Amino acid sequence: MKGMKGRFAGFTALLDRLSGSPAAVAGVSGTRALIGFIGFMFYASNYGERDYLFGPHGVYLWQDFIDGVQENGTFSLYALSTSGAWFELVFHLGMIAALAVTFGVGGRLVLAVHWVFLWSVYQRIPLILDGGDNLAYIVLPMLLLTNCYDRFSFSTGLVRRWADRVPGVVRAMSPALHNLGVAAVAGQICLVYVVSGLYKVQGRMWQDGTALFYVLRIPEFEWPGVSRLLYENDMLVMAGTYGATLFMVYFPLGVLVPSLRPWAALGSIGLHLSIALLMGLTSFALTMVACDLIFLSKGVEAGLRRARATGRRLGGVLRDRKMWPERDAPPVAAEHTGNTGVLTRTAEKMGSISGSTEQADHNAARTA
To answer: Where are the domains of the chain?
Structure first.
């Protein structure tokens, strides 16, 4: 009976801790900023060809686009009109929303707007996507539950004024909702790794350690001059194939152990940066890296504190430099600035006061 009470007390203490203070605030804020940057770079990298790729008369035929939207039962703001002006308006508003999310302007409202615009532009031409879009679709609504604007953001004051109008009961639920959103993102990343790893385990090329040999030889994913050096080395191919499979399968176990969590996250970041470089799947790789930041929240927070301390030191140095000319100024500088007459008149006044005092003392002595 005592054991049951102890376990129940421990469980309630865990619930109190999870609902009392938000976890991984710096990490989830970094996730929001990086996902916003990825969306902005998608717009910026295709800006010159935007009409060819996303316009009403682009390479992806308009009727095929409309049929795909209706068949999937989804939506896209680009499907509302064939007007070129409407296309330009939607495209540039989406670009602005992505930039606002990157810099942390507008709060959850702008984050939701960014999700709508990002979904719309991805639906317009799904042929050029690399898989990062699927993860962004899922993660962005989860971020709406979190306090992802507490770090790396510029406060306009408007969101804070709106937040003050929220009932106290709802504000009291904020830490619990935040932690729920963080847990949802972490669970989604673990699910991606486990499913991907289990699919690899079932493949013959992954079982015999030759999968990377064939992957790196695909022309669309090849890095000229570098991929060849890798797939011609049998040891690197075998180590990379088996290492990637084992890492993906056991990643959730590493996340569950607090001492291994940062190392698992760093390993994941290294894996996906290599995918970005060797295969060119930049959007997918950076989206995974953004989600990995929630496991490195303490490191992100420590780096942010060091950056602030460095900024304060630099500000102090600059302020001191502005004071140097005043410190080094000679004490007689007034004589060379046209103030000699003022100093002379002041000295004369002091002399006259002294003389009057001496005369008054002399008269008092004679009277005595």
So the answer is: 17-158+166-309
